[in-house]
Design a protein that fits this description.
The protein is built from one helix and six strands. The protein is α+β, with helices and mostly antiparallel strands. Pfam families: N_methyl.
Length: 136
C-alpha cells in the first residue's frame, strides 16, 4: 500500500496574492480616471439636450396657452411677458432681439429667439403663424 508524504507548506493554495489585487485595483483606478471626465461631459450634454426639448415643447404650446388665457404674450430682450407663460429650467435665459409677439387669438407673428445656458447659445427661428421651433 503506497503511502503519500507531503511536507507542510508545499501544497499550492488557490487564490490571489496581494500584489495581484493591487495591480488590478491600480488598473481599474487608471481606467476610471480616463473615462470619468468623458462620462461627466456626456451627462451634461444630455441634460442640456433634455432642457432644450422641454423649452421647445413649451414654445410649441405657447400659442395655444396664449389663446386659452386670451392675452398677448411677448418674448423680448428680457424674456417672456407675462413671465408665467414660460417656465425655463435653472440656468437658462430666453431672449429675442426683435420682440416676438403671440396675439391673444394664439397666432404668432414670427421671429427669432435665443436660448443661453452658460457658454452654449441656441438660436431658434419661429415662423408665423404657428411658430413651431425645430431642434437641430
Amino acid at each position: 500500500m503506497p503511502i503519500s508524504v507531503t511536507c507542510p507548506g508545499s501544497e499550492r493554495q488557490s487564490g490571489f496574492t496581494l500584489l495581484e489585487l493591487v495591480v488590478v485595483l491600480a488598473l481599474v483606478a487608471a481606467l476610471g480616471a480616463i473615462v470619468l471626465p468623458s462620462l461627466l461631459k456626456m451627462q451634461e450634454a444630455w441634460r442640456r439636450h433634455v432642457d432644450l426639448q422641454d423649452i421647445a415643447s413649451q414654445l410649441r404650446s405657447l400659442g395655444y396657452r396664449t389663446r386659452l388665457q386670451a392675452r398677448e404674450t411677448i418674448i423680448g430682450a428680457d424674456g417672456a411677458l407675462p413671465a408665467d407663460m414660460l417656465s425655463l429650467p435653472a440656468g437658462w435665459t430666453l431672449s429675442a432681439r426683435q420682440p416676438l409677439v403671440y396675439l391673444a387669438n394664439g397666432a404668432c407673428l414670427g421671429g427669432e429667439v435665443s436660448l443661453q445656458h452658460e457658454d452654449v447659445v441656441q438660436v431658434m427661428q419661429l415662423m408665423a403663424p404657428l411658430c413651431q421651433p425645430e431642434l437641430p
